[in-house]
Amino acid sequence: MPGAFNKDMSEQRKDVTVEDVWKGFESLYEKKLTRAIGVSNFSIEQIERIMKVAKVPIHNSQVELHLYFQQKPLVEACKKHGISVTAYSPIGSPGRVNFVLPNG
Fold this sequence. Notes:
There is one protein chain. Helix 3 links the parallel strand 2 (60-64) and strand 3. With 104 residues, the chain is of the alpha/beta class. The chain has helices at residues 18-30, 44-53, 72-80; strands at 38-40, 60-64, 84-88. Residues 15-94 form the NADP-dependent oxidoreductase domain. This is NADP-dependent oxidoreductase domain-containing protein.
């Protein structure tokens, strides 16, 4: 989003919300510059915030999702709102060497 960073690009602005960004996405969708709009790595709280103000619903949420990181509450929240889910790292994430399963 233009203006989301200060001129020197070193410091993120704190006054730009996910709702503001979503309104920008909706503008692109309404101008037919894209067929779908979505989010990546958003929490349930961020998704709920957007859905409260959205004129155009979230079409897709892309998240890390695999056998060892199932994110069931997030997937359920997406189902509740009719949001499709796209998994990245669906066969696991080698970088998660310190990941511990709930059963230890």
